[in-house]
């Protein structure tokens, strides 16, 4: 919203023109809009609180989320989130490098070969392995800045998932493909949902 240059204020109640406030659900019916108003319009996104266009995970589920972030990139930018993004990227790359270098001794510290006939031990190892894999896919989701650009957010999420999965692979001596299969599925789903590249979707009548 750009206020008037002369700082004038309106008094009373005024009716907004038709199309000033558009429901995003109308867009998803035909993947386009015909907005019968000028450039000053508001687009609302009703629905779940955690599924809004300003969250990086909402794209490509909400194609308009990418357009929303393009508007933010051209106005406010992402200067507030980028330092945290850079630190997390360096952290994830460091984890990958450390686990790769310390791979011969890492499994000996985390996986001792005790008597496998003990039921408590085997059950504990299985539970710890499943919890570690689950944490590898959940933790990056919560530590990434929520309002970062979707392309940066998904790239950092996949990088963080791979970094934490590398710890699980080396600690429990799991096959790499079995652990990163969900990440491959997530990446494939992103490619399928993001293609074809969605246009802005807003057409001024």
TrEMBL record:
<protein>
    <submittedName>
        <fullName>Uncharacterized protein</fullName>
    </submittedName>
</protein>
<feature type="transmembrane region" description="Helical">
    <location>
        <begin position="76"/>
        <end position="98"/>
    </location>
</feature>
<feature type="transmembrane region" description="Helical">
    <location>
        <begin position="151"/>
        <end position="173"/>
    </location>
</feature>
<keyword id="KW-0812">Transmembrane</keyword>
<keyword id="KW-0472">Membrane</keyword>
<feature type="transmembrane region" description="Helical">
    <location>
        <begin position="179"/>
        <end position="198"/>
    </location>
</feature>
<feature type="transmembrane region" description="Helical">
    <location>
        <begin position="118"/>
        <end position="144"/>
    </location>
</feature>
<keyword id="KW-1133">Transmembrane helix</keyword>
């Amino acid at each position: 919203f750009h206020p008037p240059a002369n700082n004038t204020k309106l008094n009373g109640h005024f009716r907004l023109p038709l199309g000033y406030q558009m429901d995003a659900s109308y867009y998803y019916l035909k993947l386009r809009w015909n907005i019968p108003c000028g450039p000053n319009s508001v687009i609302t996104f009703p629905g779940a609180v955690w599924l809004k266009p300003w969250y990086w995970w909402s794209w490509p589920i909400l194609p308009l989320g990418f357009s929303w972030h393009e508007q933010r990139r051209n106005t406010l930018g992402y200067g507030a989130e980028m330092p945290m993004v850079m630190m997390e990227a360096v952290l994830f790359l460091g984890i990958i490098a450390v686990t790769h270098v310390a791979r011969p001794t890492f499994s000996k510290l985390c996986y001792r070969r005790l008597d496998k006939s003990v039921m408590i031990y085997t059950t504990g190892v299985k539970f710890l392995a499943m919890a570690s894999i689950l944490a590898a896919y959940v933790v990056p989701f919560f530590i990434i800045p929520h309002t970062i650009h979707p392309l940066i957010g998904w790239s950092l999420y996949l990088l963080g998932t791979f970094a934490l999965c590398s710890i699980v692979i080396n600690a429990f001596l799991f096959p790499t493909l079995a652990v990163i299969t969900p990440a491959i599925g997530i990446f494939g789903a992103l490619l399928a949902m993001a293609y074809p590249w969605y246009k802005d979707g807003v057409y001024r009548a």
